[in-house]
Amino acid sequence: ETGVTQTPRHLVMGMTNKKSLKCEQHLGHNAMYWYKQSAKKPLELMFVYNFKEQTENNSVPSRFSPECPNSSHLFLHLHTLQPEDSALYLCASSQGQRIETQYFGPGTRLLVL
Amino acid sequence: DQQVKQNSPSLSVQEGRISILNCDYTNSMFDYFLWYKKYPAEGPTFLISISSIKDKNEDGRFTVFLNKSAKHLSLHIVPSQPGDSAVYFCAASARGSQGNLIFGKGTKLSVKP
User: Fold this and answer.
1) Whole-angstrom distance, CA of residue B4 vs CA of residue B92
2) CB-CB: which of A31, A44, A104 is closest to B43?
């Protein structure tokens, strides 16, 4: 595997379900990110982790819970989501955080029913 | 209010001609700008970037121009090729931010053979 991978690629869940999105980067980077892209909207940064420590939380509702066990893996735990949370969730990584190019995974397309 | 604006949702260009994608920003603290390209079912891929200390950066067929006084940047692709057909996102980063890239909504470029 190379680059940034995300699983699953597609996910359908009910509002009472609990699911997790997984991201893995094989680039030796130190920073990882979760983004959300809703229809007709720009990509929105959700969380930033640098060396496994969360450094940014862009006012994301608590029904989204990130976890970064090491610099290569990032999870987004989902529980009691709303239909408006349906979106494309993208993971990215970079070597550092400032003026560093971020490399994106293919995304997980989430549908909340 | 959007800090990074791509006012043209789509652009169609003939193969071999120049494609010009535009991006405007409002935050004078932005000092680093990036362009990403996105194919369907894939994550955004980094294309080219420019620091605010420069007004032009060139990489092969791709050139980014930055006009700080107008808070405007553009991406020129010449000559355009059918494989360039994708959605192009402009992104900006501010001094002091923690890897927080602010994205535009994207412009869909179609290059016709």
Assistant:
1) 7
2) A104
